[in-house]
Amino acid sequence: MEDLPLPPAQPGETRRAHTARLLREAVSRGLIPEGARLPGHRRLAGALGVSRNTLVDALTQLEAEGYVRALGRSGTVVSAPPLTAAPPMPAALPLSRWAQRALAGQVQEVGGTFAVDFRVGQPVPELYPEGPWTQALARRAGQATRGGDSDPLGPLDTRRALAAHLNASAGAQVTPDMVMLTGGTQGALDALARVFLEPGRVAVAEDPTYPGARAALAATGAQVVAVPVDGAGLQTERLPGAATLAYVTPGCQYPTAVTLGAARRQALLAWARDTGAFILEDDYAADLHHAGRPPAVLQGLAPERVILLGSFSKSLAPVTRSGFLVAPPEVLRVLTGTRPLTDRVPGRLDALALADVLGSGAYSRHLRRARQVLAHRQEVLLEALGAALPGWSAAPVAAGLHVYLPLPAPWTEADVLARAAAQGVGLTPVGPLVSGVGMPAVLLGFAHLPPEALRGGAARLGAALRPGPM
Question: HTH gntR-type domain: which residues (predicted)?
């Protein structure tokens, strides 16, 4: 027994659990053969460096699991044979076609540590309404633990507050029975794609677009038609003759941040009515529209053909996982029927707190402050880029948390990223968001950086991109 390997305890593992694991592994590996009699409790406890009581508790557990058998005064014997050697892992896992398509659609994040990190998707904790949110959580905690409302759409209080907010601020046409609470936009996209798409059907996505959306559509086996985006948004004249779903971000296109104009909005809705397609309208960054009033959502013009998706992860706090889906009641009936197979209603406490933050006016007050901060930070970045990179064309955007910077010829994204990294600057490339070959560009997130960091980062970037060798 003194020769048994004694690997260290795992984090949080108790002495009893550690002792049981040591003996279990020794039996499973054949180090203590089946039928062998274990030493007396005091001797075995001493060999393992534990108390007699700890050893007895561990042996009681192992007896319940069938590894040992207590024989009274005759001691304890091993009653389980060693495990057969595990075969080597196959060279390729037997993945389903869905998993293969889903993995093929993933975009790998570029790692690294930078002095000034402009990469998009970073949290902006100083812009979150921490006070109102934590107060709402505390106020609703008791009600959430009591349960009660088990509506598969989510608490009625929250759906009423969301409907009122969307109707007042986004020009939507929403009643509470058209709202389903979700854990975020990605989960809602996945659920809709599974319900409506399959091999042989067609889906539409903007190009470039959010890669998670394109991956969710493509994973179903449906054909995903990429429709290009230009300075006026989705090129509606290039929509296919038939489709089941179309994923769009008309209020603030991701990643170009352009807004879809009125004529193209009308053309997109006419196409949806003619083809019978549902439009999945991702209201990305709608609440973070910091240049004038945000445009009304498409859903308000055609609630029977538009499914509106939204999330508060960027405007409220990413830890809330509070999102929503607005759809015709007949669509929601299907989603609530299929939801139990893959999902559950999001956390009740967060949902009830969201109802209070929306209904009390705290969220509107928070947005007014956040929009001012974002507008100022964007202005600082654009001025600094103009000074550091004369002749480059970073244009102001009306909403969102990043600036879209097209690259002038002959620059490539790889060259710009490498030179920027050498100067300690992190950027996000646009190439992985494009289905084919598009105009080279990079994204610069600005919301999470204070003005002095924005100016310093722009100066570093200007130094990195001066003509000449790196």
Answer: 13-81
